[in-house]
Structure formats: C-alpha cells, structure tokens
Amino acid sequence: METITQRIEPVTKGADPARLVEAARAAAARVVDPEIPTISIADLGVLRDVRLGADGVVEIDITPTYFGCPAMRLIALEVEAAVERAGCGRPRVNLVLSPAWTTDWITQAGRDALLEAGIAPPPPAASRRALFGEDTPVACPNCGSHDTILISEFGSTACKALRRCQSCGEPFHAFKCL
Amino acid sequence: MTTIAVAETPLVLSLLRLADTALVHSHRLSEWCGHAPMIEEDLALANFALDLLGQARALYAYAAEVEGAGRTEDDLAYLRDAPQYRNVLMAELPRGDFAFTILRGLFLSAWAHPFWQAATGSTDTQIAAIAAKAEKEAAYHVRHTGEWTIRLGDGTDESRRRMLAALEALWPYTGELFEADAADRAMIAAGVLPDPARIRPAWEATIARVFDEALLPRPADGWMQTGGRSGRHTEHLGHMLAVMQHLQRAYPGCSW
Hints:
heterodimer; A: GMP Synthetase, Chain A, domain 3; 3-stranded mixed beta sheet; B: mainly alpha; Ferritin; 11 helices; 65% helix; globular
C-alpha cells in the first residue's frame, strides 16, 4: 500500500528553500481534522502560514476554530509528524490567535467535503449576521430541502449545531457560523 | 497544599480576574455533564464549559508570560487556593437547578459579550487577539441562555417559579460585574481593558430584551455582594477547588 512518505517527494534540509517550504506546506495541508476526517486543515482554514525560519527550521502557524477545541494539540502533533515524514525536518508549530478564525475561511473544496460527510456547510460570508440569530436557511445535506429546524445550538463538537430536516425527517449536523 | 504567590501587577491581576471567572464558571457548568435535563442540553452546557475553559487557558498562559516567573497556565489554575482566586462571586455559587444555571449563564455572557467586543480594540495585541475569539463564542452563549430564560420564564408555573427564585438569588451578585478598582482604572486609562461602566448599557439592554419576552421583572438595584475580585469568597469556592484540584493535591506535580 502506498504510504504518505512515498507519495511526497522527500526534500532534505539544505535544499532549495522555496521547494522545502512548498513540500512542507503540501505535507501539512494533507493533515485532516481528527473530529471531521473528511476535511483537511488547509480547507478548514486552520493552517495559516508555512515559512522558513531564520535558523532553517520550517515554521508553521495554525489557528484554533474554537478556544477550547480539544483537537488542536493533536493537529499540531500530526502536522509535526507529517512535515517530518516529508523529509523537511521537525518544524516549529505555532498556535496563533489573531486574526480570529472564521467559517468564511473554509474553502469551496472544504464545503464540498463537509457536505459529503453529511454535515451542512456554513453559508459563505455569513459569519457576522448569522452569529446574531438572523436565521440563514440551512439546506439538508441528505435531501437538499431548506425546510430544516434547529434542535440544538450545540452539537457533538464545539463547531457544530444539531438540526432536523422537516422534509426527509433526518437529523443532521450543521457547521456553525463563526 | 503547596501554593504560589503571584506578583499581581494591574495587568496580571486583571488577567487573573478574567481567567478565574471563566474557569470557575466553566467548572460549575461542567458539573452538569451527564445530568442535564436532556441530551441536547448536556452537550450544550458541556460545550459552553469547554469554550470558557479554552478562554481561561489563553488568559492564564498570557498572565504567566506577563508575570515572567516561569509559571504555566496549570500552575495558576492548580496552585492557588480560594483566597488567591479573583473570580466574581456569581461564578462560584453552587450549580443550583437548571433555571439557576441558565440565568447565571445569561448574566455572565451578557456581560462577557460586550466586554470582549470592546476589548478587541485593546492596545495590548494579545488581549485583542483573545477578545476577537472570545467575543464570537460569547455571542452564542448569550443566544442560548437567553432563549432558555424566555422558555422558562414564560413557561409552566413550575419553570417560572424556579426562574423567579433564581433571579432573586442571583441579582445581588450582578453589581460586582461593573466594579472598577485602582487596578481596573489603570488598565482602562492605558486602553488595555474596557471600562465596565461602558459595558453596562449593553448588558442592561440584553437583560431588558430577554426579560421582556420572558415576562420577568427587572429587580431594583439594592445592596450588592462584593469581594470575589479581591479574594474574599463565599464558602463554596473552597469546596469547588478541593474537587477541581484534587489530583494535584493528592499527587503534587504528577503528569502522564
């Protein structure tokens, strides 16, 4: 079976810095959210920056979706391991808070991945208004109907709410706007 | 137990007040885990607790960095006893029934939301960064606790009776949210933290809007409880910390 190491062309330290950063970025971008494994941290907007530090060590910035997100530590460890496996050396992974993460950073590929996993993606560029309860219609990920109701503002993880589709009757998770 | 003496400069003290309030409130909310009236609320209260715990961690980490004595967020949470805690008294009161928990959540988040919103403009970039995240989380907390306050206040005779009892018990603790002492004034003057007097109109507006729909009367401002922010606590905090810090007290410095 193909392993990650084989898929990524190994780049050793001392190589062309641009290629090193690119390889590190590619490796880090493949790390998935441990709680929603269909979406990569790049598509989730959690991976903020990859660069080369003055000492030649790859430096990576990640940002939490929610403060209390218990997945952050695991994500940091997996980024470290992925970048090291790609032959880019052990990176420094920084947790940055500013600017604050918003659902608007989830890419289109990320939205598609969420939908595929049965999670209604947040409506694009709606974060601010949605935060204050102006109900933006959420489409059911199973049947596409917009006739859905909120069951609970809080779901199985901090970033999701629980809804039910009035049309097909299925309950589903919806990504909260932030 | 081993305790530490934190050098409380105005900034460190202010950070501890915010962090302690978030942590203590978070712990009270977490006591509902597995006991809430229904599964959705079990998840909601645990999520609410988790948000506050995350905020507390960021604030403790920054307080430790500012103090510069080589401490960690864990040292600040686990190695101080009740008289060294700086949370507002309201946060430490026993969890009470569901109405009490919801109303406390509303009072504290209706304060936290405009506070963090204003703090996004802090001259301290780390506080501004923490505020930008906390503000969004607080908006959800206001919404959730506000909806439940309405449902319970304008619900059955029993839910209303409990909401009124919670209101009577909690109201005397609301005054402490808007106090400002010398340390606060120093932070306000430096543009580091917002003036609580300027938070009050937003808090009053939220409470008025929710109470109006919940058919709850806004009590008159009588004598208010005070002391938590200077370490004078109710008898309840010590018991809570004994539970929260049990592992550290039984096995000092343990790790796994």
